[in-house]
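Protocol step 4 of 5: obtain the predicted structure for the target chain.
Materials: sequence only (see below). No template structures provided, no constraints applied. The aim of this step is simply to have a reference model before the mutagenesis design in step 5. Sequence pasted as it appears in the construct record:
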Amino acid sequence: MPFDLSLSAALWLGLTFFVAAFVRGYSGFGFAALVVSGAGLVTNPMLLVPVVILADIALTAQQARGIWHHIKWRRVSMLFLGCLAGVPISVWALSAIGVDLARAIISLYILAMCALLLTGWQLRRATGDAAHIGTGFISGLANGAAVGGLPVAVFFAAQTLSAAAFRATLIAYFTLLDLWTLPIMAWQGLITRDTFIATAMGLPVMILGVWLGSRRFIAAEPLGFRRFAIILLAVLALFGLGKSLI
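Step 4 output (structure tokens):
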């Protein structure tokens, strides 16, 4: 097994991949955070970060046709401009800390983002390029742990965006963010043979999950389609935090 996983750990990760992919197909965000949170319960979550990023790129290709016409490209470009500086800092920092500390930091961060999403916080005025660049920088700072999507999800949820535009623009931005993060991780030596084996083993399950989640999105109500993913993220983050403290 890749990363010297036990059979039970591998089966747990397979279930985690499926649920996370379903959430991605359904809501447009939460995939990476769910995988990293779930992985943290059975192994070092940092091992799964490059796996998540590789898989995320592949899954975007699966969804591209259905989201293309809903993408807000100006938003995507400004977010990406901001993440350019944040990603190298986060990859360097998180590769230098221990497993328990990484698990605790990731869990606390995810809980904070979930809390903001659940409060229904709204911006009082329209946002411009500067706000998008700043959010992109924060996103880049988080993407060393593959959870750079959550601050953008919070940012978008606080604005007036249709469910289709919210989902499509997030997915498009995540692809650029991942394409920038991968070479930096490779330079830091964080991508190994096991990374590609784990990605290849998990992709069939993830493709099925995204397909089923995308079908569910078609029938989703705009006001409630995100809550499922947020609550699941918070539960996994709480378990991960507890494991880091034991």
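Step 4 remarks: Residues 44 and 99 are 6 Å apart (CA to CA). Residues 2-245 form one domain.
Proceed to step 5.
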